[in-house]
Specification:
The protein is mainly α. About 70% of the residues lie in helices and about 5% in strands. Among the domains are: about 150 residues, Phosphorylase Kinase, domain 1 (2-Layer Sandwich), CATH 3.30.200; about 210 residues, Transferase(Phosphotransferase), domain 1, CATH 1.10.510; about 140 residues, no CATH class. Pfam families: Pkinase, TPR_12.
Length: about 1200
């Protein structure tokens, strides 16, 4: 058939199938749903009984016509269709395999249509080609394919005892067919022996493109993702990414070919599944360690030594590379796999193995055995005979010189080390207490004069000391020593390149990324860059980009280094893998990062043994990843194991133990156990000073941790003092514009922020921003973090446009740096939600919080602190919207997540309990709210103490409950206690202290304590103006209205309140409940002024505001009804007024108790509205004239 005929057939088939599928005939009710079409040979010979269904009524088609074909017999059945042998009516010699499919399953029709289209575009001698297609009168789709007489691949191999070369030639033909399909952007996705028929003359035919898919020509990835077709795969031959449901490319077929090749060579599959459930399959693939084919090759119980020996080396390497779990580590294409096999068959070096001289020589000898043997034998004899004496003499002289040199080196090094230890010998040193740092300092000063005549030894010791000083945090001294070492070396010296890499590490620790890049660029100019140097250079670039936050570049560099992984020493290989795991973590892929660390740990334990310092360090890093993943119990287990190794190897008076203490503090802080956390941090600081000396960068780092913890506890004076000490140490070591200094300024700004001094806080934050931008550029993640803080600051001040602009900038930076699926993206979405919530745009806020929650659940799962925190914010929005049922469920879920994580004492649990209690209050469940608040307050006292910020907030919440419940004396007592704590923590004016004074004024006004409320109100008004926080100003102004009302200045109160309401109505950030309460107050005042119509209008407006904010049975609706009754009592509607006054009073008493201030005020309205001849039944109690 010509190319023109192929194209015409393809076009006609596509048109026919499109028409058939788009307009199918109706189906009779007696037909059943088929599952999976398979080719004749596949269906007939499939030994898996689970793949076959019971007999189907469609077997009645035997003997009938199907288009231009006569069906002769059924060849087999697949999961979703049947395959028949048929012959063309006008040419009985033309046999076809005819597949049928029922058409009432849309997804299966789509697969069938895709298979037809794919086959119509494929014309290769080793692919069974499409002949015709159509639709039966019953509605069944069908297609006719080339009928291949032969055996499936597995059966063929059993019947024909092929040697190794013949097996490989057969496999290469299969590869050629697949290459052809890949070039036409088609991947098979179901390669297995049953889908490969071998004809009588040994030609393979590739069958069954039923679940094949097409690729995007631009990206090389799968065009569309499917679910149903993935369920039809054969797990034993499917790639890990196909089983996981990832987007696929040609690498998935490379893996399946790897399984086939393994089976061809070893006689069995590389692994077996004992169950068919997906969890077992994934676990097996994850845990499997594939044995080399040469180790398992057997032939009917007798080991074929020659066959197995021929597999060792190249074929083992090729097979295992094709079977790599990571698609990036497999062959890049089927062509590359086939090329290596062809190179092997020709005796040439393959690409999958390092091209060492010894390997290339072995391959050469293999190709030219006899000439090589004769030539090498003669040459070797002549060389050995001619130069034996000279070589022997030279070797003896070199060994003598080397031994003398090493003896001198050992003597000098020993003397140097002895001089170091003598400094801590109390018999020889005048200092009875000397730190490790001082020992090193004296040794460094003694180094130059003691080894002046041995420059090579001096250079080695300089480089070693430079590395040690870097580890102790003294980067300037490390840089000085390494620079000296470098100046004593020539570029060609063996240790020069390693010294450059040590110098690079010091520059990275110091944060001098520009100089580090210059150094790497210079190293890259070396013309003699072999694989080892290339690997180290790319790895170094990867570390540079990691440190500087350029994660996209880091990924590229580390991937490039991994291509040379085999050339690196084992220790450097694992270090490279650790950096890849760190990158995964920084990119937000916490689960893959944890998995990579676990694999690294297993490799290190196999290499170093279980009791090695590097094993301990990797366990500690894995513990940190567990913390990021919210798995605190697993983190503690890792830390315990790491600490045990460190303590056993070095004891608890060693620099490595400092990190153990600091990690433990981090874990305790994450759990909310701040007291124990600070104890561990303090121990780490003391040990640092003892071992490393005073004022070291390590001490500054630990002081920063202590300062942040003190801030979280609310001990702001100590926190400020601690952070300032950290700043001074860092400035002394790094200068004023170093990144560490900038980080410390940011922490200092956050302390002032929490203390309420927003102006000073902003100055420090902008100082940090300036340093970051100067050192890192405008789009670095650290710049985004500072802009995020500024956005929150603007939001707190009500500067919505500036806040939104900052947040949008941060979002753009983070998406560019990390991609859209990263924890930091979820974080900024949540912050934007909080901003919109503060504006009163609750629907928009809920949308952003929901996006953040969805992303965090995708990244971390359901049980994680970040998920709990986002749910907490969603609950707050629900509470503000007065969707109290949703708020209640979300707060309860937050508490449940922290409980499941083992964080019962975490401060966020107490906050969630307090907010849940507020929800209970709003719903009138005061007893439940009180129990919850008392429980939260006790947890806070145990965790943080009675002088902490959180404890003050707990007292405030409990006081608010008592205020709402009418227990005004208890409320006042709690407000005063909370205010005393707040004023001890923060200088006036402060937002929290101001808010507590507002609460005190409110309760005193309720109690009629005008003298106690008035001076406090005057003071709070001045503080509110200074704070410039809109919500505080609104609350203070409303209390001023109440005071005017109580004092009898009704007109002044009304005018002032109308002005406030005019401003609130135009604001986007005011609470609807506050506006409704103000309208109720205004209606009460207007009634007293005799403005009844205005009062009734204000009451209706108040109800409208509350309609979407409070449950319909909330007590404030009864308060509004009482005020309405009071207003109507002064009109002709006195009967309705009496009903409203009585009903509202009784409802308030039933809900709140007759001593509640709302009930007492309702009773007073009812009492004031009655005529002299009317009497009131006070539920058995006299009218009380005492106001609580």
């Amino acid at each position: 058939m010509s190319a023109v005929d192929d194209a015409a057939l393809g076009a006609s088939v596509r048109e026919m199938i499109d028409r058939a599928v788009s307009d199918p005939p109706s189906l009779s009710s007696g037909e059943r749903h088929p599952h999976s079409p398979e080719d004749a040979a596949s269906a007939a010979s499939d030994s898996n009984p689970e793949a076959l269904d019971p007999p189907d009524p469609v077997s009645d088609l035997v003997g009938s016509r199907c288009g231009s074909f006569q069906i002769e017999k059924m060849l087999g059945r697949g999961g979703m269709g049947t395959v028949y042998l048929a012959s063309r009516v006008d040419d009985l010699d033309l046999k076809v395999a005819l597949k049928t499919l029922s058409n009432w399953e849309p997804r299966l029709k789509e697969l069938f249509q895709r298979e037809c289209k794919i086959l119509s575009g494929l014309n290769h001698p080793n692919i069974a080609h499409l002949i015709d297609a159509g639709v039966l009168p019953s509605g069944q789709l069908w297609l006719a394919m080339e009928y291949v007489e032969g055996a499936t691949l597995d059966v063929y191999l059993k019947k024909h005892d092929l040697d190794l070369a013949a097996r490989l030639e057969l496999f290469l033909k299969i590869c050629d067919a697949l290459c052809y399909a890949h070039r036409r952007m088609v991947i098979h996705r179901d390669l297995k022996p049953k889908n490969i028929l071998i004809t009588a003359d040994g030609e393979p035919k590739l069958l069954d493109f039923g679940i094949a898919c097409t690729l995007d020509p631009d990206t090389g990835a799968q065009r569309t993702m499917t679910t149903h077709s993935d369920q039809l795969m054969t797990p034993e031959y499917a790639s890990p990414e196909q089983i996981r449901g990832d987007r696929l490319n040609t690498a998935t077929d490379v893996y399946s070919l790897g399984v086939l090749l393994y089976e061809l060579l070893a006689g069995c599959r590389p692994y077996r599944f004992h169950r068919r459930d997906m969890l077992h399959i994934l676990e097996t693939l994850h845990d499997v360690v594939i044995t080399r084919p040469s180790s398992v090759r057997q032939k009917r119980g007798t080991t074929c030594e020659k066959f197995a020996r021929n597999l060792r080396g190249d074929l083992d390497t090729i097979t295992l590379k094709a079977l790599a779990q990571d698609p990036e580590r497999r062959y890049a294409s089927v062509e590359a796999l086939a090329q290596d096999l062809r190179l092997h068959l020709r005796g040439m070096p393959i690409e999958a193995r390092p091209a060492t001289r010894s390997y290339r020589l072995r391959k050469f000898i293999t190709r030219h055995r006899w000439p090589a043997a004769l030539g090498f034998g003669t040459a070797w004899f002549l060389v050995l005979f001619s130069f034996y004496a000279v070589v022997q003499q030279a070797r003896l002289e070199r060994e003598r010189d080397y031994a003398q040199k090493e003896r001198r080196a050992a003597s000098h090094v020993t003397e140097f080390l002895v001089s170091l230890f003598e400094q801590v010998d109390p018999e020889l040193s005048r200092d009875s207490d000397i730190s490790a740092f001082e020992v090193l300092e004296r040794g460094r000063r003694h180094l130059n004069p003691s080894l002046g005549e041995e420059p090579e030894i001096q250079t080695r010791l300089l480089a070693t000391l430079g590395r040690v000083y870097r580890g102790l945090g003294h980067t300037d001294l490390s840089l000085q020593l390494l620079t000296q070492a470098k100046s004593r070396q020539n570029d060609g010296d063996a240790g020069a390149y390693q010294t450059d890499l040590e110098l690079l590490e010091t520059l990275l620790v110091k944060g001098d990324y520009r100089e580090a890049k210059h150094l790497l660029d210079d190293l890259g100019q070396d013309s003699d860059m072999g694989p080892l140097k290339n690997a180290r250079l790319e790895h170094a670039y990867g570390r540079l980009w990691l440190k500087s936050g350029q994660y996209v570049h880091a990924k590229t560099a580390l991937k490039a280094a991994a291509e040379y992984l085999a050339y690196l020493p084992r220790e450097e290989q694992m270090n490279l893998r650790r950096n890849q795991a760190r990158l995964l973590s920084l990119l937000g892929s916490i689960k893959p990062s944890i998995e990579e660390y676990r694999q690294i740990l297993a490799a290190e334990r196999a290499y170093y043994g279980d009791h090695h310092v590097q094993v301990a360090k990797t366990k500690a890093e894995l513990g940190i990843q567990y913390i990021k993943g919210g798995k605190l119990i697993e983190a503690e287990d890792m830390f315990n194991e790491a600490d045990h190794i460190i303590a056993d190897l070095f004891g608890e008076r060693h620099p490595n133990w400092i990190a153990c203490l600091a990690r433990r503090g981090t874990l305790l802080q994450e759990r909310g156990d701040y007291v124990q956390a600070q104890e561990y941090y303090n121990r780490a600081v003391i040990l640092t000073r003892d071992l490393l000396g005073e004022q070291t960068p390590r001490e500054a780092e630990l002081l920063t941790k202590v300062g942040i913890l003190q801030k979280e506890k609310g001990d702001y004076e100590k926190a400020e003092e601690t952070i300032r000490r950290s700043i001074q140490i860092n400035i002394g070591h790094f200068g004023k514009n170093h990144l560490q200094v900038a980080e410390s300024y940011l922490n200092l700004g956050l302390i002032f922020w929490d203390r309420g001094d927003l102006a000073i806080a902003e100055d420090h934050i902008r100082n940090t921003l300036e340093i970051f931008r100067e050192q890192l550029g405008d789009t670095h993640p650290k710049v985004g973090r500072v802009l995020n803080n500024l956005g929150i600051l603007h939001s707190q001040r009500g500067q919505w446009q500036q806040a939104e602009s900052k947040f949008q900038n941060v979002l753009a930076i983070r998406i560019e740096t990390y991609g859209r699926k990263h924890p930091s993206v979820a974080s900024i979405l949540m912050n934007m939600g909080a901003m919109y919530s503060d504006q009163g745009k609750y629907d928009t806020a809920e949308s952003y919080h929901q996006r953040s929650l969805t992303l965090r659940r995708e990244l971390f799962g359901e049980i994680h602190p970040d998920v709990a925190f986002t749910l907490f914010n969603l609950a707050n929005v629900s509470s503000k919207k007065r969707d109290l049922d949703a708020a209640e469920k979300r707060y309860e879920k937050v508490i449940a997540i922290y409980s499941e994580l083992g964080n019962h004492s975490h401060p966020n649990v107490g906050i969630a309990m307090a907010n849940l209690a507020h929800t209970y209050m709003t719903k009138g469940k005061y007893d439940d709210a009180e129990k919850l608040l008392l429980q939260a307050l006790e947890r806070c006292r145990e965790t943080l103490g009675e002088n902490s910020l959180r404890y003050a907030e707990g007292l405030w919440s409990l006081g608010f409950l008592y205020y709402l419940d009418g227990r005004t004396s208890q409320a006042e007592s709690h407000f005063e206690r909370a205010l005393n704590i707040s004023q001890a923590l923060f200088p006036d004016p402060h937002q929290m202290s101001c808010g507590l004074k507002v609460s005190l004024i409110a309760v005193r006004l309720r109690c009629g304590d005008i003298d106690g409320a008035t001076p406090l109100l005057d003071r709070v008004q001045r503080e509110a103006r200074a704070l410039k926080i809109p919500r505080v100003r609104s609350q203070v102004d409303f209390l001023h209205v109440r005071l005017l009302h109580i004092q009898g200045d009704l007109q002044g109160a009304a005018d002032f309140l109308k002005g406030l309401l005019a401003g609130w109505r135009t604001s986007t950030g005011e609470d609807p409940y506050l506006i409704a309460e103000a309208l109720g107050e205004l209606a009460d005042i207007e009634t007293d002024l005799g403005h009844i119509d205005e009062a009734l209008i204000h009451l209706e407006e108040a109800r409208a505001y509350l309609a979407g904010s409070l449950p319909t049975d909330h007590e404030y609706f009864q308060v509004l009804a009482s005020i309405e009754g009071k207003a109507l009592s002064r009109t002709r509607h006195r009967a309705r007024a009496a009903t409203l006054l009585e009903t509202s009073y009784r409802n308030l008493v039933q809900r709140l108790g007759e001593q509640h201030y709302h009930a007492e005020e309702a009773l007073q309205r009812w009492h004031a509205s009655r005529t002299p001849n009317e009497s009131i039944d006070f539920l058995g109690s006299p009218l009380s004239t005492h106001k609580k």
